[in-house]
Write a sequence for this structure.
């Protein structure tokens, strides 16, 4: 199983001395959480960013008919957080749930804000995280508006190269905004074409 | 015609002395631009945020078949910018074009960064802008994944209350990710129900 350590992630991504990071990171709560448990439920106010060190989370909504809609998967090395709920202190519309047994570091809002105030490099890094988030969301909207099922699938494989074997097809289809039947068709078509090459 | 002044917008939204804002804002370029002109084209690197003082912009992509997909409308008082292109210095996938004769203030990236470094309140305001952007994008994805055509339409009317009379139906449908026929049906259904009440 892959493993990503938040301290390593930060020291490789931010020009900030290890001691400062260590001081802040060591205060953070790291939890082991079994598959099928919740880190956020609809109606809660999101109080933490979650950094996945091991395992896999899903971030999703449930519509009136009880159907799940996947906004994001978070495997090792990914952050997941409902920034809307956390920043604006509003009840979340979403759920965060473990799809596998996971190890997750919980950061409360203040950690990033404090580090940003103390350290300009960290502020820049935080800004980059926000812009990266916007980049992902914007691309996703453009794909949902304009791309075929196959294009969406290929983009999924690019973003999440090792998830196809870890995530049920119904959830992949939900992420892509297509039916499971359509996803099967896409996979079959791609396999046939690969075979013919 | 409504008119929104960037200076007024900032002084009412940020706790920052008028003099500081004035110094920065007065250096900015304000342009009058006729309907049907471009502020950003696919392949360009986006060098500015645009604040709409008068008029209306559309922010969109064009797919391989030449079809437009609207990511955002920007009427008076809205910002529009390809943050991905600007922040990561990458060629944009998108276009920004005037849908009406417009007056637009152009802010280059440095203005917000400089003001943020000089002034903590401005940094907080900028952070709020980024989170607000994320909030909009996330909601949009959730609607595209989970909402009916009618729900998407009602959300559109809430976000853009005065745009229905200013924007062609085909562009509204494109924003909603539905066909123009489906949009007509939704509007007819809603009108019938309103009439029956």
């Amino acid at each position: 199983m892959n493993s990503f350590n938040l301290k390593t992630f930060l020291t490789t991504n931010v020009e900030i001395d290890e001691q400062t990071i260590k001081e802040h990171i060591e205060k953070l709560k790291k939890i082991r959480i079994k598959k099928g448990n919740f880190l956020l439920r609809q109606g809660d106010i999101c109080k933490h960013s979650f950094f996945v060190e091991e395992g896999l989370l899903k971030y999703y909504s449930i519509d009136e008919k009880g159907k799940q809609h996947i906004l994001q998967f978070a495997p090792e090395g990914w952050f997941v957080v409902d920034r809307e709920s956390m920043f604006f202190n509003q009840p979340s519309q979403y759920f965060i749930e473990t799809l596998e047994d996971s190890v997750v570091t919980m950061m409360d809002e203040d950690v990033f804000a404090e580090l940003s105030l103390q350290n300009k490099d960290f502020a820049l890094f935080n800004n980059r995280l926000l812009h990266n988030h916007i980049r992902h969301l914007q691309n996703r909207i453009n794909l949902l508006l304009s791309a075929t099922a196959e294009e969406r699938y290929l983009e999924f494989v690019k973003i999440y190269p090792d998830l196809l074997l870890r995530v049920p097809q119904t959830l992949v289809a939900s992420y892509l905004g297509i039916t499971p039947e359509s996803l099967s068709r896409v996979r079959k078509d791609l396999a046939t074409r690969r075979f013919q090459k």
Observations:
- DSSP finds eight helices and eight strands in chain B.
- Chain B has a mean pLDDT of 91.
- The helical segments of chain B are 6-13, 18-25, 83-88, 109-118, 120-146, 149-159, 169-176, 180-196.
